[in-house]
Amino acid sequence: MQKPEDIKITYTTKADPAVLDAFHGAYDAALAAIRAEFGREYPLMIGGEELRSDAAPIVDVSPIDTSVVIGRFQAATAAHVDQAVKAAKAAQRTWGRVPWLERCTILRRAAQLIRQHKFELAALMSLEVGKSRMEAMGDAEESADLIDYYCQQQEDAEGFIKRMNKITPVETNTSVLRPYGVFACIAPFNFPLALSCGMSSAALIAGNTVVYKPAEDAGLTGWKLYQLYIQAGVPAGAFNFLTGVGEDMGDALWQHPQVDGVVFTGSKQVGMRIFRGFSSRWVKPVLMELGGKNPAVVMDTADLDAAAEGVAKSAWGLQNQKCSACSRVYVHKDVAAAFTEKLLAKTRQLSMGDPSERDVNYGPVISEQAVRKYEAAVARAREEGEVLTGGARLSGGVFDKGHFLAPTVVKAPLGSSLFTEEFFAPFLAIGEIESLDQALAEANKVEYGLTAGIFSGKPEELERYFDEVEAGVVYANKRTGATTGAWPGAQPFCGWKGSGGSGKGGCGPYYVAQFMREQTRTLIVEE
What we know:
Layout: H1 17-35, E1 40-42, E2 44-46, E3 49-51, E4 58-61, E5 69-73, H2 78-95, H3 100-116, H4 118-129, H5 133-156, E6 161-163, E7 171-179, E8 182-186, H6 194-205, E9 209-213, H7 219-232, E10 239-241, H8 246-254, E11 261-265, H9 268-278, E12 286-289, E13 294-298, H10 304-316, E14 326-332, H11 336-348, H12 368-384, E15 386-389, E16 408-411, E17 427-433, H13 436-444, E18 448-449, E19 451-455, H14 459-468, E20 473-476, E21 496-497, E22 516-524
């Protein structure tokens, strides 16, 4: 029998229930341990120094039960931001000169520490952001794998130091990728560890220092990451922990003149504002992943059981609060009724409630703001289409304590705005199509281009979909998630159009190099 720590959970894991008994036992113990920490106050960490703010604290509550205070966090001011950026700038002079192999050794140590603490981290994410056990453990495992994968990129490229050709006999030419300096790392709530790890570790491995702002709704997960980095040997000042309120503190961070680059995951609206405002005197790097409105296409030759399962998993995982979540389905008219019936059956089979419990796979949305957005979408759906299931706030028992919403499936005409606007809530629109031509036209008409999926029994349709759909991550016939489930080193996570910035995504082979700039070194040695 496997030990709990040896069971690896990804977003597509299907483990033997008997094997998972030990996993759930360890998870229960971790939940008890993490709950014992709740309610504490946490400082800012700047240059290794604990600091506090005079502003009212950020009270981080559980979306499962809003009476449960996860922790109280400082609301950093512009003065704190200035202090943190200057600390990072000073630390970068030393960190950037640490041999690249030594930096990788330190970060690999951080990855191993994450694996050692993965039950505690996963349990925290269940309670802090409402992830089911499997989703939360996948987040923790991905975090460690991201760090190792990015270290491997640096190692395979031998530090991105490459000997170039000679033009004359007396010269030696070398291309060296060097760090930019200080990166602002602004993370979202939905993958509070994996995205924080992926963005920050790539910056650190490349020799940059980081000022890190976790999401307001995930402060304790961010604090745990800070502690693990420092324990692994990342020096004080190389990674600084700042909590703050929305744009007040976030704007001060990315607008600071000594910030050399920004890595950001969040909304398109905020990302584009950063992109437009960040560079003034010269162009500076902004690496972004900005959400999606991800389509799945179900053709008349599809395996409808696989399609229904794949769409349901992508739509209802983390209550559709994933950038990669399936939020619209285009189904061939000849199989629309049969597919819809199967999808509704899958949706009604969800086990809803406290997602930290063993058999619950559908929990709350993150906040009351998310509830309001959902309610607006449902109101529009009643005007523009037909609500097939859901459409209301859940009530009774545990549902009265948090932000619980019924998973909602809507049938709508293709011209409806329900197919183009991102809601980031448990809401799925279905439209009928007559051909792959029409499906591609509908899939591509939105401003986003993150993930996409297709179910078809015709190889020529799959190939054409790969070639013509405007998305950076494309899946065909994926029962374990029609548009979701990317993993480091397997599926690079690159957004096109309004879903990304650089054209080279996280989880992929070109990510770390984007945190560096090239310098050519020519050395002349004459006899």
